[in-house]
Amino acid sequence: MSEKPKAKLRLEIAHVLFIDIVGYSTRLTDEQQALVDQLNQVVRGSDEFQKASATGRLMKIPTGDGMALIFYNSPEQPVECAMEISRDLRGHPGLGVRMGVHSGPVSAVTDVNDRINAAGVGINLAQRVMDCGDAGHILLSKRVAEDLQQNGRWRPSLHDLGEVEVKHGERVHVFNFYTEDAGNSEPPKKVPQAKAIHRAEAARSSDRIEPKRARFSICVLPFANMSGDREQEYFSDGITEDIITDLSKVSALNITSRNTAFTFKNKPVDVRQVAAQLRVSHVLEGSVRKAAGRVRITAQLIDGSNDSHVWAERYDRDLNDIFALQDEISRAIVDALKVKLLPEEKKAIERRGTENVDAYNLYLMARESYATGFEGDGRRNEAIIRLCRRAVEIDPNYAEAWALIAMAEMLLRSTSGVGGDGGLAAAERALELNADLAEAHAVKARILSEEKRHDEASREIEAALRLDPESHQVNKCAGLLIFRQQRLEDSIPYFEKAVALEEGDFGSSGMLITCHTALGNREAARRAAEITLARAENVLARDSNNGSAMGHGSDALAVLGQGERAKDWMARALLIDPENMTMRYNFVCALANHLNDKEAALEMLGPSFEKMGAGLVNHAKIDPDMDPLREDPRFKAMLAAAETRVESTS
After folding, report:
1. From residue 204, how far is each of 147, 156, 181, 199, 209 by CA, in Å?
2. What distance lies between CA 443 and its chain's CA centroid?
3. Cα–Cα dist 288/235, whole Å
4. What is the DSSP code (8-state) at residue 243?
5. Which is it for the CA torsion 427, 433, 435, 439, positive or negative?
6. What's the pLDDT score for residue 467?
7. Rounded to the nearest 10 degrees, what angle do helices 614-622 and 472-484 cross at?
8. pLDDT of residue 205
9. What is the mean pLDDT of the chain?
10. Residue 342 has what pLDDT?
11. What does each C-alpha distance from 188 to 137, 145, 184, 515, 614 come to in angstroms?
């Protein structure tokens, strides 16, 4: 039995105000603390801060030279708060700040002592927006500006600065927000496009804000599995994901991401509350029953403003009609909303990876196994390969199945040295069938990286990110490739996005522990450890023998100062899953880097180095978690022997 989870994890769309003290790093330590104290005083005096805090819908995260304020009600709240802070700062002439606002996913962890930490894309992009500004600026992301412009009161305060390239090569569309008594009317010096904008032009720039094309926004809640068999959960989840994908192809609709929608899985929901929380106009919910070669799907589209049904239908069909049924549901929703479906959008919805329901069913099983597992689990990867191999026997042109085969084969070769060509042939077959399949480009990048073909790998991951920047698998692959180039800080946004996109991914949050620890950010490492532990414990509650979860979980426990519990997990996992090389590797990291037990780390590493695949060996060569061991002659000898072994078998 696993121990009871001690942390609660939630992922929500939040509205983040990131505040930074300008010139903080140039001040003496005493001056720095005085500035932080002044800023805290001003922020806590804000009416919006006090109102949100009183209702429990606010988190305040200190960042050393400022803070992130995370609001959960509406995008207006952080903007109102920023305006109040801007006005009040006029009484503090020596305290210059810049502020950025963005709405996006935020993962929040509440521990047993009610301490709250948060991380995620929403916070990261708010900081990127803020980074574009100078003292006095209140800058908004395009998403926030579009939300505000729905209210005529805000329009004169929004001034479009265009797209800006920020840290890590990201591009963000930035708006300067100012009124007569709040914000900075001068265009930021850091925004090249702003140089051509004069005040007179800026005053008219709100007229140039392009309205969003999407007229409706929809959250597709996970369809309930009514089959009476938990083993059929993969099928109802797969139907939900495919409907989300289909509706996302309609330009007149904004569709909530799969990950955000699935935070409501198996929870009682109030549709109006969901609509208000996610700021969507409609919610789609339904159920799936699959049995005896037939499938029954019920679906209803609900207006989030008044909880009324816009459309509802029940379908009872032969299982072989599942693809036509998915098309029918998507078209029915489009018709119910009186949205025009463009010809190319209709074709995109009807385009499927396969038309064979048996191949589709096998792929859904494999995809569920990958999404809910861990990359280093060899048995799971072998099962994925078996399922997808059978799928491509049935339909040799099933690109998605070939791409998943490539991923599993690459992982087997990377961790344990088995897996043939490491998935290269399968990846190339997937791309031959569908050159626009982002996951196939991503896995090919990983394979080429293992073969030290780094330039080709970079081109492939760039293509993957361009094709689908919201893919969990693509972001995870990008993070790992950049990490292995020893660009730790640059890898963090991709791991953070992977964490936000897939709530079961404890591997990416584990990588964030490594990055933040190596960069000396203990508080961020601790936040990542709390997320990792919560996710590992959730997995162990369902699968108490999951060695991979215990591997990352023990590292998180060590970071959080629970050394004895970490060692207990290690002892149990080694009895249950002794051949899991990635798990053993993570135990070594915990022992060497967080428990200060070099001897135990080296003792465990020896047998592991004898069996590791090339990917883990290459990882060990650059992994900062191994730095406490790196100068030890025994480590050098073991690493050299492992390199010789994997090179001789490649």
Report:
1. 19, 8, 18, 9, 10
2. 18
3. 8
4. H
5. negative
6. 85
7. 60
8. 37
9. 82
10. 66
11. 8, 17, 9, 31, 48
Residue 209 C-beta-side C-alpha neighbours within 13 Å: 28
Nearest alpha-carbon partner for 530 in 501, 494, 561: 561
Say how far apart CA 140 and CA 101 lie, in whole Å: 5
Residue 591 has pLDDT above 90, yes or no: yes
561: left (phi over 0), alpha (psi -120 to 50) or beta: left
pLDDT tens by residue, 169-196: 567 889 999 888 888 888 787 654 433 3
Nearest C-alpha neighbor of 574 from the set 587, 559, 561: 587
- Give the DSSP H/E element, type plus range, for residue 622: helix 614-622
Q: Which among 103, 90, 94 has a CA at the least distance from the CA of 181?
A: 90
Check: CB of residue 79 under 8 Å from CB of residue 148: yes
For 374-394, write each residue's pLDDT tens digit.
Answer: 677 778 889 999 999 999 999
Task: Indicate the SS3 state at residue 458.
Answer: helix
Locus of tokens 């990882």: 619
- Dig out the tokens for 59 from the structure: 């988190």
- Candidate from 199-203, 468-472, 483-487, 523-527 with smallest mean pLDDT: 199-203
Q: Look up the pTM and report it.
A: 0.63
157/548 Cα distance (integer angstroms): 51
> Over 276-330, what HEC string results?
HHHCCCEEEEEEEEEECCEEEEEEEEEECCCCEEEEEEEEEEEHHHHHHHHHHHH
pLDDT in tens, 489-548: 889 888 888 887 777 788 888 999 999 999 988 888 888 898 889 888 888 887 788 888
**How far is 419 from 412, CA to CA, in rounded Å?**
5
